[in-house]
Amino acid sequence: MEEQNTEAKLKNLLKQEKIQLWNPPYTSDNNQPGQQQMQELAERYAPQVSLSVPEVGVALESIRVQAVNRGKGNKTFRETNVASLELLLPRDARKVETQRKPSEHGLRYIRLILSGKTLCPDKRLDEQGVKNHSKIMVLRVTDNELKQQMHKEEEERKNKEEKKKSQDKSLQRTQKGFQILSERDGSEDPITTPFLEIADQRGNPLKIPDKERKALILAMGFHEKGRSLMKRKQYDNAVCHLLKADGQFRKCDSALLTAVDNYAVLQLDIVWCHRALEALSCLDDAKSRLQTAERCFLQCYGEQQERLMMIKGNTGREQVLFLRLYLLQSLLSYLEGNDTQARDKLSKVESLYSRLCLDSEKMNQLLLLGFTEREARLALRACQGDLQDAIVHITNHRKEKEDLKHRERQKRRTRMDNISTLTAMGYSRRDAARALHRADGDMNKACGLLYLGFERDASEAALRQTGGDVQSATQLLLENRGVLPSELLPVSPPSTSPSTSSPSSEEPTTSSTSTGKTPDDELVNEVLEDISRHEEDYLDLTLEEEQELIGVIKSYLSRGPAPTV
């Protein structure tokens, strides 16, 4: 990482001064270095990159040779369509031209490695990602090592295939499970038929188009599964699910994505996984994602987090998201050779970390009072470390949750009573439940949907046209003999299992349920296990991983001055 950082900084300096090392006076006509000019550059740049003059000289020569060879290779490739490759030989790690055979270097059995993958002799090089100027590592292999390596590679191949199958199966089951949930509209009993409801930061249900609602449920489902895998350090599997979530989020209205912070958090999670996997090839993608995350946070929370303050009353808990954002931006700046920006971002990180790192004594006091670690951590951050305020905060939050549960139980009791009333009038429990759901629990509107046996779609359309007035809707239906013009009817496809909404003495007034679970039920329960039961789980970070990364970045940025020579 240090070598990459050094060369990146030197390339930036060369670019700023518009110096082309492959041209005179730095390179002669016979491609030899201009010794004096290269020495002067090394002496000038050494203090700026905090390295010795010889170290900078070696790095500059490496950059010059790369540029010269790349230019020669480009010319050859244009004229002959023959690519130039750089072979990194064992021991001395010298780069050689591919015109020389590996056997001339005492290499009989070899393996060629490109980007961590062994090249297969049975496939075309371009099919395996080999391009002009690709750098390929050459490894010497003895007869015995060759057999062992072949066996190892076969095992790795099988393991990789099994891992890929497992990932694909997980993705398919997650998608199917949340697709089932996205089709549920909440008209059934939530105790026996769970469903998902999209709510804003205050917990209020969002009224959004059905197509967008389904995409959002899938997006949030994949995100929750990915976060569950991140907690188990399964970052390669996690990022597959997170990228699926990203694809579903992109199907939603951009205005919706800025109303909640889910999309911004997803971008952070994807880059965090790439960091853990050391996927340096994803740097450009990471930069774009971090910019998106920062923009979404500002739109969702407000430029000064005023919207967040208005909604939640504090901003302490969400600061962990900004800490992770600035930390990843610092790492990215360092890898791009921009140490100044990396230090600026890291300074913000350390300032936030000092405020968010909790007093262990206060944590223990809250735990002794019977509060959970999560409650204690979130409350202390919300209250800027004030113990008494944290106690009040947790107590109030628990009361709010109990009040919400009470309202939900009361709502369910009322709903079940209304269903019983409608079934007593002769309607099936299924039709009664759906009518009440579509009427938002209003008994008069529900009766209107079921009234006189009109078709459900026609009844709903009539109620919409009359603003929910049952008498006017009924009159409209009678005038049209129960059949409304097509432009007034919903565009959703008809149900595949037709049912009547009219009272029937032949229909039972109670429904029978099977004691066994269907495969769909099992799948739904499986995916629901990955959804956190705490609404602020994504904010409950211990900051242990962040602390470790802070130390890594500081170790590279806080080097002392270069020794004098």
Automatic annotation (TrEMBL):
Highest taxon in the source lineage: Eukaryota
All residue ranges annotated as the UBA domain in the record: 357-397, 438-480
A GO biological process held by the record: regulation of ubiquitin-dependent protein catabolic process
Biased composition (Basic and acidic residues): 143-171
Compositional bias per record (Low complexity), positions renumbered to this chain: 497-515
Name of one Pfam family that matches: SASH1_Homeodomain
UniProt cross-references to SMART domains, sorted A to Z: UBA (SM00165)
Ranges where the record places region Disordered: 143-190, 485-523
Signal sequence range: none
PANTHER family in UniProt: NEDD8 ULTIMATE BUSTER 1, NEDD8 ULTIMATE BUSTER-1 BS4 PROTEIN
Name of the molecule in the record: UBA domain-containing protein
